[in-house]
């Protein structure tokens, strides 16, 4: 059994990030007799300057990328179908908003110390894409974190402690300097970069190849 470190740079308002993770999860299940993965999540803010309260998602995509309403509808249908294929339910709706995620990333970085990062990450994806939650709202974030098994008072401290916000910003800057400008970005064994939501089949190939190369080195 080989142990592999897998780092995932992502944002919790990125639909391709959860699709990419679910495909990775399926790939790891297929190679579970030979590979054991240790997953670490890292922050990336798609909208670092987004004000509190967010912006209508469709308006945001039109302003940022020039996306038409027709293209937006088509993209949502595609994502919903791809989500269903990997067991994740997207619940897109007309008034859906996109939010700044700095505070969510502060909690995620802290949750790693309590071995609750993966649970919190997945709960945040669910909260945003499935349950229509305002994930820049402190009360919403604290409730999600508490449900994931974290301490309420400590969550509040982390959200109000500027050093955690700076830690997130510094980490994001390091990934940008390393050439990560889009997410999801999956780094296997700290040296193999997988960009975008690759297919489960492709991920199985990569995992097996990297594992066998590690075996030959050792």
From TrEMBL:
Record field: transmembrane: none
SUPFAM superfamilies, A to Z: Thioredoxin-like
InterPro entries, alphabetized: DSBA-like_thioredoxin_dom (IPR001853), Thioredoxin-like_sf (IPR036249)
Matches recorded under Pfam families: DSBA (PF01323)
Ranges for domain DSBA-like thioredoxin: 6-207
Protein name: DsbA family oxidoreductase
């Amino acid at each position: 059994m080989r142990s592999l470190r897998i780092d995932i740079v992502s944002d919790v308002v990125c639909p391709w990030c959860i699709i990419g993770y679910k495909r990775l999860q399926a790939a790891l299940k297929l190679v579970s007799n030979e590979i054991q993965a240790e997953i670490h999540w890292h922050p990336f803010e798609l909208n670092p300057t987004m004000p509190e309260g967010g912006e209508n998602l469709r308006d945001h995509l039109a302003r940022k990328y020039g996306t038409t309403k027709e293209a937006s509808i088509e993209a949502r249908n595609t994502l919903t179908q791809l989500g269903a294929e990997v067991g994740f339910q997207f619940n897109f709706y007309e008034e859906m908003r996109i939010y700044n995620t700095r505070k969510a990333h502060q909690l995620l970085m802290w949750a790693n110390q309590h071995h609750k990062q993966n649970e919190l990450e997945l709960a945040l994806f669910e909260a945003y894409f499935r349950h229509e939650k305002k994930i820049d709202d402190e009360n919403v974030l604290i409730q999600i974190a508490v449900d994931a098994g974290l301490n309420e008072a400590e969550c509040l401290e982390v959200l109000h402690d500027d050093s955690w916000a700076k830690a997130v910003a510094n980490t994001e800057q390091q990934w940008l300097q390393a050439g990560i400008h889009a997410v999801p970005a999956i780094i296997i064994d700290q040296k193999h970069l997988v960009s975008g939501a690759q297919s489960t089949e492709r991920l199985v190939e990569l995992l097996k190849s990297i594992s066998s190369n590690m075996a030959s080195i050792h």
